[in-house]
Amino acid sequence: MRFAMNHITAPNVSLEDFFAMARALGATEVEIRNDLPNVVGSWDAAAVKEAAAKAGVTIISINALYPFNVWSGDLPARAEAMADYAAACGAKALVMCPLNDGAKVAFEDLVAALKAMKPILEAHGLTGLVEPLGFPISSMRTKAEAVRAIKAAGGENVYRLVHDTFHHHLAGETEYFPEWTGLVHISGVVDPDVTVDAMLDPHRVLVDARDRLENLAQIKALRAAGFHGPYSFEPFAPEVHDLADSKSAVQTSMDYIRAAL
């Protein structure tokens, strides 16, 4: 397993300690964020690059440009600024998430946004990691729609998908796109009472034997189909964030997944 680590796994840990924790767990690929914690807004890009080099980790993405499919207002400027930062800190890609507030976004607008973002990514040598959100209120729920839009935008050379095991399950999507996938986000839901349509980010914990999202089945399907990229831990649950020993908890989840596979 090629495990990676998203900073949301341990958002209360400093950037240097997060990098060190990932490396100690054998994960040499990490994701930084612009929300929780807001590394992009609080760290100089050169300092982030230096810290990553010191720890021996590669920054595979910055998470995330939102809402990328509504190309208006300050979004173009924010996209340029995030791309500048990514290039300066050594990140390889930008995660791009769609509008998630119940409003519809036309397919033509999705395509237009991908077309507008393409030259920004190309100029900075970055990949755009398009992440469908499976929530019922999301404006782009499936990977199938994302792939269709990427093709319509002529973005095959610059865009890849994020396969998020949580959102794949919520969307009820059964199709896998291993050849389009650049990154997998993994998290589990163990609450036995919450319905699928009511699952939210705070329900997302580390993957264990109680998982309801069929993470193991999804990972097996991706591996069998030829995906050998990174599987990045992305739990949002407060009880995970507040753990006194995040490293041990992630190690336990890693060991469970490896043994189960």
Automatic annotation (TrEMBL):
Pfam families: AP_endonuc_2. Residues 19-259 form the Xylose isomerase-like TIM barrel domain. Gene3D superfamilies: Divalent-metal-dependent TIM barrel enzymes (3.20.20.150). This is Xylose isomerase-like TIM barrel domain-containing protein. It comes from Gemmobacter aquaticus.
